[in-house]
Here is the input.
Amino acid sequence: MNRLGSETSPYLLQHAGNPVHWWPWGEEAMREAKRRDVPLLVSVGYSSCHWCHVMAHESFEDPATARLMNEHFVNVKVDREERPDVDAVYMSATQAMTQQGGWPMTVFATPEGHPFYCGTYFPRPQFQRLLTGLHNAWTTDRDNVLKQGAKVVEVLNSGTALPNGPLPTAETLEQALANLRESFDPVRGGFGGAPKFPPSMVLEFLLRSGEREMSGRTLESMARGGIYDQLAGGFARYSVDAGWVVPHFEKMLYDNALLLRVYTHWWTATGEPLARRVALETAGWLLRELRTPEGGFASALDADSEGEEGRFYVWTPEQLREVLGPDDGDWAVRVFQVTGTFEHGTSVLQLPEEPDDPERLARVRERLLAARELRVRPERDDKVVASWTGLTIAALAETGVVFDRPDLVEAATAAAVLLDEVHVDGGRLLRTSRDGRAGRNAGVLEDYANLAEGLIALYGVTGETRWFRLAGTLLDTVLDRFADGTGGFYDTADDAERLFQRPQDPTDNATPSGQYAAAGALLSYAALTGSARHREAAHAALGTVSVLAGKHARFAGWGLAVARAALDGPVEVAVVGPPGDPRTRALHREAYLSGSPGLVVAPGPAPDDAVPLLLGRDLIGGAPAAYVCRGFTCELPVTTAEDLRAQLSR
Here is the structure.
Protein backbone atom coordinates (compact mmCIF):
# COMPACT_ATOMS: atom_id res chain seq x y z
CA MET A 1 0.00 0.00 0.00
CA ASN A 2 1.24 3.49 -0.90
CA ARG A 3 1.02 5.65 2.24
CA LEU A 4 1.76 9.10 0.80
CA GLY A 5 -1.80 10.19 0.06
CA SER A 6 -2.30 11.99 3.38
CA GLU A 7 1.02 13.90 3.29
CA THR A 8 1.21 17.67 2.82
CA SER A 9 4.44 17.74 0.77
CA PRO A 10 3.74 18.36 -2.94
CA TYR A 11 6.75 16.18 -3.72
CA LEU A 12 5.44 13.22 -1.75
CA LEU A 13 1.99 13.73 -3.24
CA GLN A 14 3.54 13.51 -6.73
CA HIS A 15 4.34 9.88 -5.82
CA ALA A 16 1.09 9.02 -4.05
CA GLY A 17 -0.21 7.26 -7.17
CA ASN A 18 2.93 5.16 -7.80
CA PRO A 19 2.63 1.37 -7.68
CA VAL A 20 5.56 1.53 -5.22
CA HIS A 21 4.44 0.94 -1.63
CA TRP A 22 5.97 4.18 -0.39
CA TRP A 23 6.22 5.12 3.27
CA PRO A 24 6.95 8.62 4.55
CA TRP A 25 10.12 8.95 6.64
CA GLY A 26 9.60 7.87 10.24
CA GLU A 27 9.81 5.16 12.87
CA GLU A 28 6.88 3.23 11.37
CA ALA A 29 8.86 2.52 8.20
CA MET A 30 11.86 1.35 10.24
CA ARG A 31 9.69 -0.91 12.38
CA GLU A 32 8.20 -2.39 9.22
CA ALA A 33 11.68 -3.06 7.80
CA LYS A 34 12.64 -4.83 11.05
CA ARG A 35 9.42 -6.85 11.04
CA ARG A 36 9.95 -7.98 7.44
CA ASP A 37 13.73 -8.29 7.91
CA VAL A 38 14.47 -6.28 4.75
CA PRO A 39 16.52 -3.15 4.05
CA LEU A 40 15.20 0.38 3.64
CA LEU A 41 15.27 1.99 0.22
CA VAL A 42 15.34 5.74 0.91
CA SER A 43 14.64 7.95 -2.11
CA VAL A 44 15.28 11.67 -1.54
CA GLY A 45 14.30 14.48 -3.89
CA TYR A 46 12.15 17.57 -4.27
CA SER A 47 9.20 18.62 -6.38
CA SER A 48 10.95 20.80 -8.97
CA CYS A 49 13.88 18.40 -9.55
CA HIS A 50 14.06 17.43 -13.24
CA TRP A 51 15.97 14.16 -12.79
CA CYS A 52 13.66 13.19 -9.93
CA HIS A 53 10.82 13.36 -12.45
CA VAL A 54 12.80 11.29 -14.93
CA MET A 55 13.51 8.51 -12.44
CA ALA A 56 9.91 8.59 -11.27
CA HIS A 57 8.59 8.12 -14.81
CA GLU A 58 11.15 5.45 -15.69
CA SER A 59 11.13 3.40 -12.50
CA PHE A 60 8.62 4.37 -9.83
CA GLU A 61 5.69 4.37 -12.26
CA ASP A 62 6.82 1.10 -13.82
CA PRO A 63 4.94 -1.95 -12.42
CA ALA A 64 7.86 -4.36 -12.90
CA THR A 65 10.34 -2.10 -11.08
CA ALA A 66 7.79 -1.37 -8.34
CA ARG A 67 7.29 -5.13 -7.85
CA LEU A 68 11.01 -5.61 -7.17
CA MET A 69 11.04 -2.67 -4.77
CA ASN A 70 7.96 -3.84 -2.89
CA GLU A 71 9.07 -7.46 -2.59
CA HIS A 72 12.57 -6.79 -1.31
CA PHE A 73 12.58 -3.41 0.47
CA VAL A 74 10.61 -1.00 2.62
CA ASN A 75 10.54 2.05 0.39
CA VAL A 76 10.74 5.50 1.98
CA LYS A 77 10.19 8.75 0.08
CA VAL A 78 11.74 11.92 1.54
CA ASP A 79 11.20 15.54 0.53
CA ARG A 80 14.62 17.05 1.12
CA GLU A 81 13.04 20.47 1.52
CA GLU A 82 10.87 19.26 4.38
CA ARG A 83 13.59 17.16 6.00
CA PRO A 84 16.94 18.84 5.32
CA ASP A 85 18.41 16.92 8.27
CA VAL A 86 17.64 13.53 6.71
CA ASP A 87 18.92 14.80 3.37
CA ALA A 88 22.12 16.11 4.97
CA VAL A 89 23.16 12.88 6.71
CA TYR A 90 22.45 10.70 3.69
CA MET A 91 24.11 13.15 1.34
CA SER A 92 27.22 12.92 3.53
CA ALA A 93 27.11 9.15 3.12
CA THR A 94 26.50 9.37 -0.63
CA GLN A 95 29.40 11.76 -1.16
CA ALA A 96 31.68 9.63 1.03
CA MET A 97 30.85 6.48 -0.94
CA THR A 98 30.67 7.86 -4.48
CA GLN A 99 32.63 11.16 -4.35
CA GLN A 100 29.58 12.91 -5.78
CA GLY A 101 26.03 13.77 -4.85
CA GLY A 102 22.77 15.09 -6.22
CA TRP A 103 19.09 14.38 -6.53
CA PRO A 104 17.32 12.09 -6.78
CA MET A 105 19.41 10.49 -4.06
CA THR A 106 18.99 6.74 -3.69
CA VAL A 107 20.13 5.17 -0.42
CA PHE A 108 19.93 1.55 0.73
CA ALA A 109 20.08 1.27 4.51
CA THR A 110 19.65 -1.20 7.33
CA PRO A 111 16.33 -1.15 9.23
CA GLU A 112 18.11 1.11 11.74
CA GLY A 113 18.77 3.62 8.96
CA HIS A 114 22.51 2.96 8.55
CA PRO A 115 23.41 3.41 4.85
CA PHE A 116 25.34 0.64 3.11
CA TYR A 117 24.93 1.56 -0.59
CA CYS A 118 24.28 5.01 -2.05
CA GLY A 119 23.82 6.63 -5.43
CA THR A 120 21.80 9.24 -7.27
CA TYR A 121 19.86 8.74 -10.52
CA PHE A 122 19.79 5.22 -11.95
CA PRO A 123 18.31 4.40 -15.40
CA ARG A 124 15.64 1.71 -15.13
CA PRO A 125 17.66 -1.31 -16.38
CA GLN A 126 20.57 -0.48 -14.08
CA PHE A 127 18.20 0.20 -11.18
CA GLN A 128 16.47 -3.15 -11.62
CA ARG A 129 19.81 -4.97 -11.62
CA LEU A 130 20.82 -3.04 -8.51
CA LEU A 131 17.62 -3.98 -6.69
CA THR A 132 18.17 -7.64 -7.43
CA GLY A 133 21.86 -7.55 -6.54
CA LEU A 134 21.34 -5.81 -3.21
CA HIS A 135 18.51 -8.18 -2.30
CA ASN A 136 20.82 -11.12 -2.97
CA ALA A 137 23.58 -9.52 -0.90
CA TRP A 138 21.15 -8.95 1.99
CA THR A 139 19.98 -12.55 1.97
CA THR A 140 23.29 -14.34 1.29
CA ASP A 141 26.00 -12.01 2.63
CA ARG A 142 24.23 -10.17 5.45
CA ASP A 143 27.27 -9.88 7.72
CA ASN A 144 29.28 -7.93 5.16
CA VAL A 145 26.31 -5.68 4.38
CA LEU A 146 25.89 -4.87 8.08
CA LYS A 147 29.63 -4.30 8.47
CA GLN A 148 29.56 -1.88 5.53
CA GLY A 149 26.69 0.07 7.13
CA ALA A 150 28.43 0.18 10.50
CA LYS A 151 31.70 1.29 8.89
CA VAL A 152 29.98 4.15 7.03
CA VAL A 153 28.35 5.38 10.24
CA GLU A 154 31.64 5.08 12.16
CA VAL A 155 33.57 7.04 9.53
CA LEU A 156 30.97 9.79 9.29
CA ASN A 157 30.69 10.18 13.06
CA SER A 158 34.44 10.20 13.55
CA GLY A 159 34.98 12.95 11.02
CA THR A 160 36.48 16.06 12.53
CA ALA A 161 34.40 19.24 12.53
CA LEU A 162 35.76 22.32 10.84
CA PRO A 163 38.06 23.91 13.43
CA ASN A 164 37.13 27.23 14.94
CA GLY A 165 39.41 30.23 14.65
CA PRO A 166 39.40 33.79 15.94
CA LEU A 167 36.94 36.45 14.84
CA PRO A 168 37.93 37.43 11.29
CA THR A 169 40.02 40.58 10.99
CA ALA A 170 40.21 43.11 8.19
CA GLU A 171 43.28 41.23 6.96
CA THR A 172 41.26 37.98 6.91
CA LEU A 173 38.64 39.58 4.69
CA GLU A 174 41.30 40.91 2.33
CA GLN A 175 42.62 37.35 2.03
CA ALA A 176 39.09 36.24 1.13
CA LEU A 177 38.88 38.87 -1.60
CA ALA A 178 42.20 37.69 -3.00
CA ASN A 179 41.00 34.10 -2.97
CA LEU A 180 37.80 35.04 -4.80
CA ARG A 181 39.78 36.86 -7.49
CA GLU A 182 41.64 33.62 -8.26
CA SER A 183 38.46 31.90 -9.52
CA PHE A 184 36.63 34.98 -10.81
CA ASP A 185 35.59 34.99 -14.48
CA PRO A 186 36.44 38.55 -15.62
CA VAL A 187 34.57 38.19 -18.91
CA ARG A 188 31.28 36.56 -17.90
CA GLY A 189 31.24 37.16 -14.17
CA GLY A 190 30.75 34.55 -11.50
CA PHE A 191 33.30 32.10 -10.22
CA GLY A 192 34.73 29.02 -11.91
CA GLY A 193 33.32 27.40 -15.02
CA ALA A 194 30.14 25.55 -15.94
CA PRO A 195 27.73 25.02 -14.34
CA LYS A 196 27.40 28.41 -12.71
CA PHE A 197 25.22 29.11 -9.70
CA PRO A 198 24.26 32.61 -8.55
CA PRO A 199 26.85 33.38 -5.84
CA SER A 200 24.32 35.35 -3.77
CA MET A 201 26.07 35.27 -0.40
CA VAL A 202 29.48 36.05 -1.90
CA LEU A 203 27.96 38.99 -3.78
CA GLU A 204 26.58 40.36 -0.52
CA PHE A 205 30.09 40.19 0.96
CA LEU A 206 31.58 41.93 -2.09
CA LEU A 207 29.06 44.76 -1.92
CA ARG A 208 29.57 45.20 1.81
CA SER A 209 33.29 45.38 1.13
CA GLY A 210 32.94 48.13 -1.47
CA GLU A 211 34.25 45.78 -4.19
CA ARG A 212 32.71 46.84 -7.51
CA GLU A 213 34.41 44.86 -10.28
CA MET A 214 33.56 41.26 -9.34
CA SER A 215 30.14 42.15 -7.97
CA GLY A 216 29.12 44.44 -10.82
CA ARG A 217 30.30 42.14 -13.61
CA THR A 218 28.50 39.17 -12.10
CA LEU A 219 25.25 40.99 -11.33
CA GLU A 220 25.06 42.52 -14.79
CA SER A 221 25.93 39.27 -16.59
CA MET A 222 23.28 37.31 -14.69
CA ALA A 223 20.63 39.98 -15.29
CA ARG A 224 21.34 40.02 -19.04
CA GLY A 225 21.63 36.27 -19.47
CA GLY A 226 19.13 33.48 -19.91
CA ILE A 227 19.25 32.59 -16.22
CA TYR A 228 17.09 35.70 -15.70
CA ASP A 229 13.55 35.61 -17.09
CA GLN A 230 13.65 38.54 -19.48
CA LEU A 231 9.85 38.67 -19.73
CA ALA A 232 8.53 38.14 -16.20
CA GLY A 233 11.54 38.63 -13.93
CA GLY A 234 12.98 36.12 -11.48
CA PHE A 235 16.04 33.90 -11.67
CA ALA A 236 16.38 30.20 -12.50
CA ARG A 237 18.36 27.85 -10.25
CA TYR A 238 21.61 27.88 -12.22
CA SER A 239 23.18 28.09 -15.66
CA VAL A 240 24.40 24.88 -17.30
CA ASP A 241 27.06 26.88 -19.18
CA ALA A 242 29.70 29.37 -18.05
CA GLY A 243 28.01 32.37 -19.71
CA TRP A 244 24.64 32.39 -17.89
CA VAL A 245 22.90 31.55 -21.19
CA VAL A 246 20.96 28.29 -20.69
CA PRO A 247 19.47 27.79 -17.26
CA HIS A 248 18.25 24.78 -15.38
CA PHE A 249 14.76 26.21 -15.51
CA GLU A 250 13.39 25.57 -12.03
CA LYS A 251 12.86 28.78 -10.06
CA MET A 252 13.42 28.63 -6.32
CA LEU A 253 12.11 31.01 -3.68
CA TYR A 254 15.42 31.12 -1.84
CA ASP A 255 17.45 32.15 -4.91
CA ASN A 256 15.09 34.96 -5.75
CA ALA A 257 14.82 36.21 -2.18
CA LEU A 258 18.61 36.35 -1.82
CA LEU A 259 19.11 37.95 -5.23
CA LEU A 260 16.34 40.49 -4.68
CA ARG A 261 18.17 41.73 -1.60
CA VAL A 262 21.52 41.75 -3.42
CA TYR A 263 20.23 43.73 -6.41
CA THR A 264 18.60 46.23 -4.03
CA HIS A 265 21.94 46.61 -2.24
CA TRP A 266 23.71 46.97 -5.60
CA TRP A 267 21.43 49.89 -6.37
CA THR A 268 22.00 51.57 -2.98
CA ALA A 269 25.74 51.18 -3.53
CA THR A 270 25.91 52.40 -7.13
CA GLY A 271 22.59 53.80 -8.35
CA GLU A 272 22.86 51.40 -11.33
CA PRO A 273 19.52 51.56 -13.27
CA LEU A 274 19.74 47.86 -14.16
CA ALA A 275 19.87 47.00 -10.46
CA ARG A 276 16.65 48.91 -9.79
CA ARG A 277 14.84 47.31 -12.72
CA VAL A 278 15.87 43.76 -11.83
CA ALA A 279 15.08 44.24 -8.14
CA LEU A 280 11.59 45.54 -8.80
CA GLU A 281 10.87 42.97 -11.53
CA THR A 282 12.01 40.16 -9.24
CA ALA A 283 9.90 41.50 -6.38
CA GLY A 284 6.93 41.66 -8.74
CA TRP A 285 7.56 38.10 -9.88
CA LEU A 286 7.67 36.87 -6.27
CA LEU A 287 4.31 38.46 -5.49
CA ARG A 288 2.71 37.41 -8.75
CA GLU A 289 4.04 33.85 -9.11
CA LEU A 290 4.89 32.52 -5.65
CA ARG A 291 2.57 34.27 -3.19
CA THR A 292 0.02 31.91 -1.63
CA PRO A 293 -3.59 32.79 -0.68
CA GLU A 294 -2.58 32.71 3.00
CA GLY A 295 0.11 35.36 2.47
CA GLY A 296 3.10 33.03 2.41
CA PHE A 297 5.43 32.22 -0.47
CA ALA A 298 5.55 28.95 -2.38
CA SER A 299 8.84 27.10 -2.53
CA ALA A 300 9.43 26.72 -6.25
CA LEU A 301 8.27 26.53 -9.84
CA ASP A 302 9.08 23.35 -11.72
CA ALA A 303 11.58 23.23 -14.56
CA ASP A 304 9.28 21.08 -16.71
CA SER A 305 5.95 21.58 -18.42
CA GLU A 306 4.24 19.17 -20.78
CA GLY A 307 7.01 16.70 -19.93
CA GLU A 308 9.83 18.89 -21.26
CA GLU A 309 12.32 20.99 -19.38
CA GLY A 310 12.13 24.68 -20.28
CA ARG A 311 9.24 24.33 -22.74
CA PHE A 312 7.33 27.16 -21.07
CA TYR A 313 10.19 29.65 -21.45
CA VAL A 314 11.90 29.12 -24.83
CA TRP A 315 11.14 30.60 -28.25
CA THR A 316 11.90 30.17 -31.93
CA PRO A 317 12.17 33.06 -34.40
CA GLU A 318 8.94 31.85 -36.03
CA GLN A 319 7.08 32.01 -32.71
CA LEU A 320 8.27 35.56 -32.10
CA ARG A 321 7.11 36.66 -35.56
CA GLU A 322 3.78 34.92 -35.08
CA VAL A 323 3.10 36.87 -31.88
CA LEU A 324 4.67 40.20 -32.85
CA GLY A 325 4.41 40.37 -36.63
CA PRO A 326 7.38 40.45 -39.03
CA ASP A 327 8.81 43.86 -38.06
CA ASP A 328 8.73 43.59 -34.28
CA GLY A 329 9.41 39.86 -34.58
CA ASP A 330 12.69 40.37 -36.44
CA TRP A 331 13.62 43.13 -33.99
CA ALA A 332 12.96 40.80 -31.03
CA VAL A 333 15.06 38.04 -32.61
CA ARG A 334 18.02 40.41 -32.66
CA VAL A 335 17.45 42.04 -29.27
CA PHE A 336 16.88 38.76 -27.41
CA GLN A 337 19.53 36.82 -29.39
CA VAL A 338 17.17 34.07 -30.53
CA THR A 339 19.79 32.00 -32.32
CA GLY A 340 19.11 28.43 -31.24
CA THR A 341 20.78 28.46 -27.83
CA PHE A 342 18.58 25.64 -26.47
CA GLU A 343 17.26 22.33 -27.79
CA HIS A 344 15.30 21.71 -31.01
CA GLY A 345 16.17 25.11 -32.48
CA THR A 346 14.66 27.04 -29.60
CA SER A 347 16.31 29.80 -27.60
CA VAL A 348 16.33 31.17 -24.11
CA LEU A 349 15.79 34.92 -24.22
CA GLN A 350 18.79 37.10 -23.33
CA LEU A 351 19.20 40.88 -23.29
CA PRO A 352 22.92 41.55 -23.81
CA GLU A 353 22.40 45.32 -23.90
CA GLU A 354 19.62 47.85 -23.47
CA PRO A 355 17.99 48.61 -26.85
CA ASP A 356 17.78 52.17 -28.14
CA ASP A 357 13.99 52.14 -27.92
CA PRO A 358 12.96 51.19 -24.34
CA GLU A 359 9.28 51.85 -25.05
CA ARG A 360 9.34 49.36 -27.91
CA LEU A 361 11.04 46.84 -25.63
CA ALA A 362 8.30 47.31 -23.03
CA ARG A 363 5.56 46.75 -25.63
CA VAL A 364 7.27 43.67 -27.05
CA ARG A 365 7.82 42.17 -23.60
CA GLU A 366 4.20 42.76 -22.69
CA ARG A 367 2.91 41.02 -25.82
CA LEU A 368 5.29 38.08 -25.48
CA LEU A 369 4.42 37.65 -21.84
CA ALA A 370 0.70 37.63 -22.67
CA ALA A 371 1.31 34.99 -25.34
CA ARG A 372 3.42 32.91 -22.96
CA GLU A 373 0.62 32.93 -20.39
CA LEU A 374 -1.43 30.82 -22.82
CA ARG A 375 1.11 27.99 -22.58
CA VAL A 376 0.88 25.15 -20.08
CA ARG A 377 2.51 26.48 -16.93
CA PRO A 378 5.10 24.62 -14.84
CA GLU A 379 3.80 23.11 -11.62
CA ARG A 380 4.20 25.06 -8.40
CA ASP A 381 5.39 23.59 -5.11
CA ASP A 382 3.17 25.60 -2.80
CA LYS A 383 4.48 24.52 0.57
CA VAL A 384 5.75 27.39 2.71
CA VAL A 385 9.23 26.88 4.21
CA ALA A 386 10.04 29.00 7.26
CA SER A 387 13.70 29.56 6.37
CA TRP A 388 13.13 30.67 2.79
CA THR A 389 10.17 32.82 3.75
CA GLY A 390 12.39 34.53 6.32
CA LEU A 391 14.83 35.38 3.54
CA THR A 392 11.93 36.72 1.48
CA ILE A 393 10.59 38.86 4.34
CA ALA A 394 13.99 40.55 4.73
CA ALA A 395 14.34 41.16 0.99
CA LEU A 396 10.83 42.52 0.43
CA ALA A 397 10.95 44.75 3.49
CA GLU A 398 14.27 46.36 2.53
CA THR A 399 13.34 46.66 -1.16
CA GLY A 400 10.04 48.22 -0.14
CA VAL A 401 11.60 50.97 1.94
CA VAL A 402 14.45 51.66 -0.50
CA PHE A 403 12.18 52.05 -3.54
CA ASP A 404 9.21 53.48 -1.63
CA ARG A 405 7.00 50.49 -2.36
CA PRO A 406 4.67 49.99 0.62
CA ASP A 407 3.00 47.04 -1.14
CA LEU A 408 6.23 45.07 -0.80
CA VAL A 409 6.42 45.86 2.92
CA GLU A 410 2.79 44.80 3.29
CA ALA A 411 3.58 41.48 1.59
CA ALA A 412 6.53 40.93 3.92
CA THR A 413 4.30 41.68 6.91
CA ALA A 414 1.60 39.27 5.75
CA ALA A 415 4.17 36.50 5.40
CA ALA A 416 5.47 37.21 8.90
CA VAL A 417 1.92 37.04 10.29
CA LEU A 418 1.40 33.65 8.63
CA LEU A 419 4.60 32.23 10.08
CA ASP A 420 3.85 33.63 13.54
CA GLU A 421 0.34 32.21 13.58
CA VAL A 422 0.96 28.86 11.86
CA HIS A 423 4.63 27.91 12.28
CA VAL A 424 5.49 29.24 15.76
CA ASP A 425 4.34 27.49 18.92
CA GLY A 426 5.79 28.41 22.30
CA GLY A 427 9.05 29.66 20.87
CA ARG A 428 9.52 26.53 18.75
CA LEU A 429 9.25 26.54 15.02
CA LEU A 430 7.75 24.12 12.49
CA ARG A 431 9.55 24.08 9.17
CA THR A 432 6.68 23.96 6.68
CA SER A 433 3.02 24.63 6.12
CA ARG A 434 0.64 24.21 3.22
CA ASP A 435 -2.78 25.77 2.70
CA GLY A 436 -2.42 27.41 6.10
CA ARG A 437 -1.91 24.06 7.86
CA ALA A 438 1.36 23.39 9.65
CA GLY A 439 3.47 20.38 8.71
CA ARG A 440 4.80 17.97 11.31
CA ASN A 441 8.54 18.52 10.86
CA ALA A 442 10.51 20.54 13.39
CA GLY A 443 12.37 23.62 12.28
CA VAL A 444 16.11 23.34 11.84
CA LEU A 445 18.78 25.95 12.55
CA GLU A 446 18.38 27.77 9.25
CA ASP A 447 14.64 28.16 9.89
CA TYR A 448 15.19 29.89 13.22
CA ALA A 449 18.10 31.99 11.97
CA ASN A 450 16.70 33.15 8.63
CA LEU A 451 13.28 33.89 10.10
CA ALA A 452 14.90 35.89 12.91
CA GLU A 453 16.92 37.79 10.29
CA GLY A 454 13.74 38.55 8.33
CA LEU A 455 11.83 39.66 11.42
CA ILE A 456 14.63 42.02 12.52
CA ALA A 457 14.67 43.52 9.02
CA LEU A 458 10.86 43.84 9.08
CA TYR A 459 10.97 45.56 12.48
CA GLY A 460 13.55 48.01 11.15
CA VAL A 461 11.26 48.92 8.27
CA THR A 462 7.88 48.99 10.07
CA GLY A 463 8.77 49.78 13.68
CA GLU A 464 6.40 47.03 14.87
CA THR A 465 8.00 45.69 18.06
CA ARG A 466 6.04 42.44 17.69
CA TRP A 467 8.64 41.30 15.16
CA PHE A 468 11.58 42.39 17.29
CA ARG A 469 10.25 40.39 20.26
CA LEU A 470 9.56 37.28 18.18
CA ALA A 471 13.08 37.43 16.73
CA GLY A 472 14.47 37.50 20.25
CA THR A 473 12.42 34.45 21.23
CA LEU A 474 13.68 32.49 18.22
CA LEU A 475 17.29 33.45 18.90
CA ASP A 476 17.00 32.38 22.54
CA THR A 477 15.97 28.95 21.24
CA VAL A 478 19.00 28.95 18.92
CA LEU A 479 21.33 29.61 21.86
CA ASP A 480 19.62 27.15 24.19
CA ARG A 481 18.94 24.25 21.79
CA PHE A 482 21.42 24.34 18.91
CA ALA A 483 24.78 25.39 20.39
CA ASP A 484 27.58 22.82 20.14
CA GLY A 485 29.50 24.07 23.18
CA THR A 486 32.53 25.22 21.18
CA GLY A 487 31.12 28.33 19.55
CA GLY A 488 29.35 26.66 16.64
CA PHE A 489 25.83 25.35 16.13
CA TYR A 490 24.31 22.03 15.16
CA ASP A 491 21.76 22.07 12.35
CA THR A 492 19.17 20.29 14.52
CA ALA A 493 17.96 20.98 18.05
CA ASP A 494 19.09 18.93 21.03
CA ASP A 495 15.62 17.37 21.30
CA ALA A 496 15.15 16.68 17.56
CA GLU A 497 14.77 13.20 16.08
CA ARG A 498 17.99 11.25 16.47
CA LEU A 499 19.53 10.22 13.18
CA PHE A 500 22.71 8.17 12.81
CA GLN A 501 24.58 11.49 12.73
CA ARG A 502 23.70 14.93 14.11
CA PRO A 503 24.19 17.19 11.10
CA GLN A 504 26.44 20.21 11.37
CA ASP A 505 27.77 22.15 8.39
CA PRO A 506 29.04 25.72 8.77
CA THR A 507 29.55 26.22 5.02
CA ASP A 508 27.09 27.87 2.65
CA ASN A 509 25.19 25.93 0.04
CA ALA A 510 22.33 27.34 -2.03
CA THR A 511 21.35 29.33 1.06
CA PRO A 512 23.42 30.74 3.91
CA SER A 513 24.61 28.05 6.30
CA GLY A 514 22.53 27.87 9.45
CA GLN A 515 25.57 28.81 11.50
CA TYR A 516 26.38 31.96 9.54
CA ALA A 517 22.70 32.91 9.31
CA ALA A 518 22.52 32.57 13.09
CA ALA A 519 25.64 34.72 13.46
CA GLY A 520 24.07 37.46 11.34
CA ALA A 521 20.77 37.50 13.21
CA LEU A 522 22.52 37.36 16.59
CA LEU A 523 24.77 40.27 15.61
CA SER A 524 21.80 42.40 14.50
CA TYR A 525 19.84 41.58 17.63
CA ALA A 526 22.83 42.49 19.79
CA ALA A 527 23.10 45.81 17.95
CA LEU A 528 19.48 46.60 18.85
CA THR A 529 19.70 45.42 22.45
CA GLY A 530 23.30 45.79 23.58
CA SER A 531 23.22 42.12 24.62
CA ALA A 532 26.75 40.83 25.23
CA ARG A 533 25.47 37.24 25.18
CA HIS A 534 24.15 37.57 21.63
CA ARG A 535 27.17 39.51 20.37
CA GLU A 536 29.66 37.03 21.82
CA ALA A 537 27.72 34.11 20.32
CA ALA A 538 27.74 35.82 16.92
CA HIS A 539 31.48 36.42 17.07
CA ALA A 540 32.18 32.83 18.14
CA ALA A 541 30.07 31.45 15.29
CA LEU A 542 32.21 33.38 12.81
CA GLY A 543 35.40 31.60 13.88
CA THR A 544 35.21 29.11 11.01
CA VAL A 545 35.28 32.02 8.54
CA SER A 546 38.89 32.63 9.50
CA VAL A 547 39.66 29.01 8.56
CA LEU A 548 37.89 29.17 5.18
CA ALA A 549 38.64 32.71 4.03
CA GLY A 550 42.10 32.22 2.54
CA LYS A 551 41.41 29.15 0.38
CA HIS A 552 37.67 28.44 0.32
CA ALA A 553 36.02 31.85 0.50
CA ARG A 554 33.22 30.85 -1.90
CA PHE A 555 31.85 28.50 0.76
CA ALA A 556 31.74 31.17 3.47
CA GLY A 557 30.10 34.08 1.66
CA TRP A 558 27.46 34.83 4.26
CA GLY A 559 29.93 34.40 7.10
CA LEU A 560 32.24 36.88 5.37
CA ALA A 561 29.35 39.33 4.91
CA VAL A 562 28.45 39.07 8.61
CA ALA A 563 32.11 39.42 9.59
CA ARG A 564 32.30 42.62 7.51
CA ALA A 565 29.28 43.93 9.44
CA ALA A 566 30.88 42.98 12.75
CA LEU A 567 34.07 44.86 11.87
CA ASP A 568 31.99 47.88 10.87
CA GLY A 569 30.09 47.90 14.16
CA PRO A 570 27.55 47.28 12.71
CA VAL A 571 26.12 50.78 12.40
CA GLU A 572 22.97 51.33 14.48
CA VAL A 573 20.49 54.04 13.53
CA ALA A 574 17.66 55.05 15.86
CA VAL A 575 15.01 57.12 14.09
CA VAL A 576 12.59 58.89 16.43
CA GLY A 577 9.52 60.74 15.22
CA PRO A 578 5.86 60.35 14.26
CA PRO A 579 5.62 57.69 11.50
CA GLY A 580 3.37 59.88 9.34
CA ASP A 581 5.69 62.88 9.45
CA PRO A 582 7.51 63.32 6.09
CA ARG A 583 10.65 64.33 8.01
CA THR A 584 10.62 60.99 9.87
CA ARG A 585 10.15 59.07 6.64
CA ALA A 586 13.01 60.96 4.98
CA LEU A 587 15.40 60.13 7.84
CA HIS A 588 14.24 56.51 7.90
CA ARG A 589 14.74 55.95 4.17
CA GLU A 590 18.08 57.77 4.19
CA ALA A 591 19.42 55.23 6.68
CA TYR A 592 18.68 52.40 4.24
CA LEU A 593 20.24 54.27 1.33
CA SER A 594 23.59 54.34 3.12
CA GLY A 595 24.52 50.77 2.23
CA SER A 596 26.30 50.40 5.56
CA PRO A 597 27.32 46.74 6.10
CA GLY A 598 24.82 44.97 8.32
CA LEU A 599 22.99 48.21 9.16
CA VAL A 600 20.29 47.92 11.86
CA VAL A 601 17.51 50.48 12.20
CA ALA A 602 15.25 51.08 15.20
CA PRO A 603 12.30 53.34 14.32
CA GLY A 604 9.86 54.62 16.90
CA PRO A 605 7.58 57.56 17.61
CA ALA A 606 9.37 58.21 20.93
CA PRO A 607 11.89 56.64 23.32
CA ASP A 608 10.81 53.03 23.85
CA ASP A 609 11.99 50.69 26.57
CA ALA A 610 10.87 47.72 24.49
CA VAL A 611 13.85 48.28 22.16
CA PRO A 612 16.97 49.31 24.10
CA LEU A 613 18.52 51.22 21.19
CA LEU A 614 15.59 53.67 21.40
CA LEU A 615 16.03 54.35 25.11
CA GLY A 616 16.90 57.98 25.75
CA ARG A 617 16.58 58.94 22.08
CA ASP A 618 14.18 61.84 21.91
CA LEU A 619 12.97 64.43 19.45
CA ILE A 620 15.23 67.43 18.96
CA GLY A 621 13.40 70.70 19.42
CA GLY A 622 10.18 68.87 18.65
CA ALA A 623 11.55 67.62 15.32
CA PRO A 624 12.15 63.99 14.26
CA ALA A 625 15.76 62.95 14.83
CA ALA A 626 18.21 60.22 13.86
CA TYR A 627 20.98 58.88 16.09
CA VAL A 628 23.92 57.09 14.46
CA CYS A 629 25.61 54.72 16.90
CA ARG A 630 28.11 51.88 17.19
CA GLY A 631 27.94 49.70 20.26
CA PHE A 632 25.33 52.11 21.69
CA THR A 633 27.86 54.98 21.52
CA CYS A 634 26.19 57.65 19.43
CA GLU A 635 27.13 60.74 17.50
CA LEU A 636 25.15 63.94 17.96
CA PRO A 637 21.58 63.51 16.69
CA VAL A 638 20.61 65.01 13.34
CA THR A 639 17.27 66.20 12.04
CA THR A 640 17.78 66.30 8.26
CA ALA A 641 18.41 63.60 5.69
CA GLU A 642 21.42 65.54 4.40
CA ASP A 643 23.09 65.57 7.82
CA LEU A 644 22.30 61.89 8.34
CA ARG A 645 23.83 61.09 4.94
CA ALA A 646 26.99 62.94 5.93
CA GLN A 647 27.30 61.03 9.20
CA LEU A 648 26.68 57.65 7.56
CA SER A 649 29.14 58.35 4.75
CA ARG A 650 31.88 58.53 7.35
Summary: The longest strand covers residues 40-45. The mean pLDDT is 95.
